[in-house]
Amino acid sequence: MFTESVEKLASILKNGGIVIFPTETVYGIGALATNTEACLRIYAIKNRPSDNPLIIHFADKSEIEKYCEVSSLAKVLFNEFSPGPLTLVLKKKNDSLFSCGLSTVAVRIPDHIEARKLISLAGPIAAPSANPSGKPSYTKMEDVLEEFSGKVDGILRATEPSYSMESTVLDLSQEKVILLRTGSIDRRMIETRLGIQVEVLESPEIISPGMKYRHYAPNGKIFISKILPSIQEIQSKHKIASNHFGNSSDKSISKIARIGFGMSDVSNFDKMVFNNLDYMKSLYKFLLDCDKTNIEIIYCQEPYDGEFADTIWDRLNKASST
Ligand code: TXA
Ligand code: MG
């Protein structure tokens, strides 16, 4: 059911249903966090590995305090970045939220009015990104409808995600502050705004089970390059016959797509971006469109140094790993 009514969707959630809703980062596929059976259905729909815990979405801080131990540092971080694209891993106070058997839960307050209204009517919502496991997160309603129509009990039509990249995940359940996933807020922003040190682990999967799985990967092969080669250079490097811009009808020719800052010969499949923010916001949709148009060779330009570079690098590395 495709609707603008948060009231309808809240009642679907309360009855154990699964709904898709936009947040300021990406679309989420959610169930009531206090309903284990409903949460488990999300795993089946997404084909998500069963040991990968879900982020629980709240409407406000006082609700989080009912379920989790909110340390003084967590309060500072929430004051600075919430509502917003920051997820904190906190110790549980009780067992009423779905937590995948862990002693911690990841929580966040989305900066999205309709999403928060839905949460305040229904209760805390456990929601991973709405995409088949391993694929880029969805940022556009057209992609959500194509993949999930008929598979979920409701879809909220509201303001589309603006960051188009998942939230940053910080672990506050240990002595040090640990960055588990960089996102729309990167480590530098947290360190400079708050003057705290954020640790980055070599192997975050030890704490965050989801990090060990392949992520964001399109079907085509990704090449990362400092400067984008021209189509002709790519064709000769990969020994591809020429004449296969976006309008090619020859199915035997492998298709190329590029994303980056500078291109003089832009094809229908290419995405030109103007800065790192634009790159971050465009990356997932670009990768998803590559799959839709059966792109086989994908060139991604290295991001500029500075804001969002870490996040773009993280996603490029994960999307290109095998
Ligand atoms: O922006 C976002 O965060 C989106 C929107 C829908 O809120 N959600 C999202 O969820 O990206 P998901 O499931 O795709 O990513 C959640 C990440 C996973 O890598 C998971 O392993 C980690 O958070 N995580 C969740 N609970 C955890 C916990 N208790 N301890 C450590 N990591 C946890
Ligand atoms: Mg995800």
Structural write-up:
- The strands form two sheets. This protein has an eleven-stranded mixed beta sheet, with helices on both faces. Strands 12-15-13-14 form a four-stranded parallel beta sheet, covered by helices on one side.
- α1 runs parallel beside α5 (113-122).
- The longest helix is centred in the C-terminal third of the chain and has 17 residues, at 276-292.
- β9 and β10 (177-181) form a beta hairpin.
- By secondary structure, the protein is an alpha/beta fold.
- The mean pLDDT is 92.
- The protein is built from ten helices and 15 strands.
- The radius of gyration is 20 Å and the shape is globular.
- Bound molecules: threonylcarbamoyladenylate and magnesium ion.
- Threonylcarbamoyladenylate (TXA) binds at residues 23, 25-26, 28, 52-55, 85, 87, 89, 102, 104-106, 127-129, 166-167, 169, 180-181, 207-211.
- Residues 128-129, 137 line the site of magnesium ion.
Summarize the structure in short:
The protein is of the alpha/beta class and 322 residues long. The protein has 10 helices and 15 strands.
Note poorly predicted spans: none
Oligomeric status: single chain
Which structural class is indicated by helix and strand composition?
alpha/beta
Number of helices: 10
Strand arrangement in the largest pleated sheet: 1-8-2-3-7-4-6-5-9-10-11
**Share of residues in helices:** 25-40%
The overall pLDDT, averaged over residues, is 92
Query: How does the major sheet shape up?
Result: 11 strands, mixed
Shape: globular
Gyration radius over CA? 20 Å
Give, in order, the helices and strands.
EHEEHEHHEEHEHEEEHEEHEEHEH
Provide the β-strand percentage band: 15-25%
- End-to-end Cα distance: 37 Å
Ligand kinds: threonylcarbamoyladenylate, magnesium ion
